[in-house]
Amino acid sequence: MSRDKLTTSAAAVIFAISLSSLAYAGEPRGACCLSGGTCEDKLTTQDCFSQGGAYLGDGTACSAEACEQSIQRVDASIKGSLLIFSKVELRWGPDGGLTQDTILEITNDFQDRVCVQLYFVNGDEQLDPIFTGSPPMQIAEGEPGWNKVNCSFCLTKDHPTYWSAATGLPHPHPNLNVQGAGCQPFHILDPAGDDGIPGRPDPNVPGGKMLRGFIYGWAVDSTGCQIRWNHLSGTATLINYADTTAWDYNAWAFQVNDPFEQGQRAGNCGAVAMNGVIYDSAYDLLLFDFFRPGSMALSSGTNMVATDTSLTLHPVSVDFRQDADGPFTTKAH
Length: 333
Prior knowledge:
This protein is mainly beta.
């Protein structure tokens, strides 16, 4: 059974975790960072979480600097111990040919080996099959949603690796001396149906299919527990073969903060606390300027330029345990 949970809050509290408040004799205890930077010793994981705290791990103890750091925010221009690829998107044409792929790259730039635990997540909700007529006849297949699959691999020192989301295999390039590491294809989240094409119907291409989602990955030790390893970076490149375009972005990187040391377990095993105390916190407010779809504002004279904006939002708090229902969802306003 998978045991991983990721939680985040801009107020430096862990939320959306359902835990019993009962503390049993002999249950492991440790230090807990509470709001305001205070620290309390000998709390159980449940007691710490119930007070909105960040559990520093079994057997840990409070110290003068244990919780004194300010809230740290996620960044896409730094290296971290946890990476999030916000947009992984595959597309197929009506004939089943791949028209868009996402090439993913992760690099470990430290002088030692590390393993990475990944989770691939389907970014769309589940759809039930559609029937019509009497007797009922199926006119549209059901689609899986919010489902997930895990993958893991290890990186040697100064090791970049890369793979294709469409095939799960290293992207071949004879002129690059780069070792690739494979994972299962991303479309394992929504396998081919009766038409032999993976994904769900593409609203922009009649007869085409698409699959979109995101990937979480973090450094782990030999037991699979999360550790401080602020030496991971990632890049995703989306290649559209149909219109011969490509663009890339850096993965969001969450660092593990002091007092955790390089290679040390970061909090309670399996509970990745992105709260600004253990791991960096995500932002809770997004403000930005953008051009409306089809805007011609950048045109000049006879040079006509049309612009578009694509916005991807995804949850940061997610429960990866086997019996979980999926990511916690919200609405944009």
